[in-house]
Structures are given as structure tokens and as C-alpha cells.
């Protein structure tokens, strides 16, 4: 078997442009910022899991229905959905190309929107209407 020799003409010119730099920077910052917000909200999520372990539905509604708990939980669901979409986008960019990429990105976006809308809607219903 013959090994391919890598020469300087095979290596990409570092001055060349690869894609949209603004969109890539925005994606990078969004992914890091949403990850940091998720870490910051981890305490709230751990509090809820420990507090609601073994509780029945009225107790859960009482805790999540509190605006000081429910509203940050709704924000956490939204930020987690954004982070989920961006993470899945990275995977799709690495392993899928062409028309299939566009279809899967559309499905990824729709799935994340549905998850976020259902989760935020459920929490806000508990906060505002019990």
C-alpha cells in the first residue's frame, strides 16, 4: 500500500476564507454563552430535583407554580433548547452534506422549537394559571 505524501500545496492556504465568519463567530459565542447559562442554572435544576423527589402532583404544582422558581425554569428550558440546537448543528455539519443536511437542519430546528414551546408553555401555565 502506498502512503500519500502531504506537501505544502495540499495544505490549505491560511489566508483563504472558509464560510461566513460572522455566522461562525455568532454560533461560537451563542454555544459558549448558552453553556455558561446552563451551568449557572444547574443549581436551580438540582434544587428542583431534590425538592420534588417523591412528591405528589399538588406539591410539584406548588413549587413550580411559584414565580421565583417557574420563570427561571422557563428561561432554562429556552436556553437549553438553543444549546441543544447548536450542538446538534455541529454534529450535522460534521457528518451530513447536501440536501440531507438542509432537511436534517430543518427537522432539528423544528424539534427544538417544539420542545422549547411545550416546556415553556407547561411551566408558564403552572406559574400563571396553576
TrEMBL record:
Q: Per its UniProt record, what SUPFAM superfamilies does this chain match?
A: Fumarate reductase respiratory complex transmembrane subunits (SSF81343)
Which pathway, metabolic or otherwise, does it act in?
Carbohydrate metabolism; tricarboxylic acid cycle
Q: What is its main location?
A: membrane
**Which Pfam families has this protein been placed in?**
Sdh_cyt
Keyword annotations of the record: Electron transport, Heme, Iron, Membrane, Metal-binding, Transmembrane, Transmembrane helix, Transport, Tricarboxylic acid cycle
Its function, per the record, reads: Membrane-anchoring subunit of succinate dehydrogenase (SDH).
The protein here is known as: Succinate dehydrogenase hydrophobic membrane anchor subunit
- Where in the cell is the protein located? Membrane
Q: How does the UniProt record describe the way this protein sits in the membrane?
A: Multi-pass membrane protein
Transmembrane residue ranges: 35-54, 60-82, 103-128
Names of required cofactors = heme
Subunit relationships: Part of an enzyme complex containing four subunits: a flavoprotein, an iron-sulfur protein, plus two membrane-anchoring proteins, SdhC and SdhD.
Q: Gene3D superfamilies this protein is in?
A: Fumarate reductase/succinate dehydrogenase, transmembrane subunit (1.20.1300.10)
Q: Which NCBIfam families does this one have?
A: succ_dehyd_anc
Amino acid at each position: 500500500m502506498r502512503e500519500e505524501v502531504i506537501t505544502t500545496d495540499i495544505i490549505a492556504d491560511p489566508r483563504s476564507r472558509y464560510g461566513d465568519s460572522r455566522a461562525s463567530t455568532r454560533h461560537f459565542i451563542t454555544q459558549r454563552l448558552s453553556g455558561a447559562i446552563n451551568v449557572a442554572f444547574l443549581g436551580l435544576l438540582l434544587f428542583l430535583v431534590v425538592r420534588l423527589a417523591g412528591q405528589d402532583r399538588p406539591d410539584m404544582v406548588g413549587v413550580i407554580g411559584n414565580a421565583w422558581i417557574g420563570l427561571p425554569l422557563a428561561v432554562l428550558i429556552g436556553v437549553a433548547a438553543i444549546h441543544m440546537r447548536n450542538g446538534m448543528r455541529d454534529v450535522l455539519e460534521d457528518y451530513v452534506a447536501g440536501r440531507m443536511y438542509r432537511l436534517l437542519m430543518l427537522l432539528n430546528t423544528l424539534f427544538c422549537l417544539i420542545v422549547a414551546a411545550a416546556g415553556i408553555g407547561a411551566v408558564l401555565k403552572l406559574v400563571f394559571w396553576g
